[in-house]
Task: structure prediction
Amino acid sequence: MALKGPRPFRRLGRLLLGAVALIGWWTVWRTVKRSLTPVNPKLALRYGSDIVRRSHRVLAVSAHQDDLELFAGGTLRLLSLAGSHVTALIASGGDQQYATIRTLDEIREQEERDAGAVIGYDAVRFLRYRDLELGHNPDLTESIRTVWADVAPDLVLAFDPTVPYRSATHTDHLAIGRAVLNISRSLGKGTPTILFYASRDPNVLVDISQVILDKSEAIRAHRSQLYGFKRLYVPVTRTQARIAGRSVGVQYAEPWRCLSLAPLGEEAFLETWPQREPELH
Result:
């Protein structure tokens, strides 16, 4: 926008525009940093380390192909390296993005398998429901429950349905998180550990510095999606991981929200994060 008028007023206008832009960028930075940093980063990192050094039966649930690699690829890679059996469950077919590409669902499924080979998934399963309709699909929860019973996981990963990233409030994402939360509530004492990714209220950090290149390679496997602004997927996810890691002095980290935290011998966990489940709105 060109500023007209006497030169002193033009200079003042440029200064004001610059100040507004600076305040805007600072606000965005603070918001992103706050959503990636737990209340107690050091304890969060210890809890994350305890999770990924153990072997688990993992069920990682996502709405679309590429979700897991973008938000959880580093943690899943570490779990695989630790000997965990990882099953990835993708709910939608991924064929609604380009109506002119009739085989897009097949392309995206193969891309997910390619990404899974990088991360180390033992199995990739597809429900093949329609994009943008998961929130209205009456079969979604029971379909996930069926796979859940088959896998018998002790660790389940899914989108945060209550306090997700502002950029992750896709209706399909929220539907996945709600389904997982509802299933976990129905299990009572038999509930496995639930970790929510893409959360604005993390209480767990996983140091993914040693596997950041694997995460980036897995994201690049989704070749059909890397167009336009989505070409920034890799640099953006690495920047987010760097911001999360900075709070605890590691190069890269992934933040998580765990529904219930074991104290690890320290009461500080229980004092900082009461063991309670969020209410759905």
The CA atoms of residues 62 and 68 lie 6 Å apart. Strands lie at 57-62, 85-92, 123-129, 155-159, 193-197, 204-207, 253-258. The domain at 39-260 is CATH 3.40.50.10320 (Rossmann fold). The chain is about 45% helix and 15% strand.
